[in-house]
Q: What sequence folds into this?
């Protein structure tokens, strides 16, 4: 009787739970318009980065084309992403 039931592996159950609780991210994209200083100021003011973190993200965006600059819930990220867009940056929530 118990042989007919599927066996649940606890490690797999944790993985599924982790996938459903996945946080979202703001992805910032490179452009040819904004200065490093502007991007850094925006990341500090809008995404609560410290100066070093903002500078590192700005360089990653510049050299790789994009960077995840903030992770969290949609409720937190959507207004932040909108603020970045209002400042002229290219970003999206994924």
A:
């Amino acid at each position: 009787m118990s042989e007919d039931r599927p066996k649940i592996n606890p490690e797999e159950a944790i993985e599924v739970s982790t996938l459903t609780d996945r946080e979202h991210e703001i992805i910032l994209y490179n452009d040819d318009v904004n200065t490093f200083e502007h991007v850094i100021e925006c990341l500090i003011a809008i995404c609560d980065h410290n100066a070093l973190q903002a500078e590192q993200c700005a360089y990653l965006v510049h050299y790789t084309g994009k960077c995840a600059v903030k992770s969290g819930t949609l409720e937190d990220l959507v207004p932040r992403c909108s603020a970045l867009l209002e400042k002229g940056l290219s970003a999206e929530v994924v």
In short: The first strand starts at residue 24 and ends at 29. The CA atoms of residues 13 and 19 lie 10 Å apart. The longest helix spans residues 51-64. Residues 23-93 form a domain with the Ribosomal Protein L30; Chain: A, fold (CATH 3.30.1390.10).
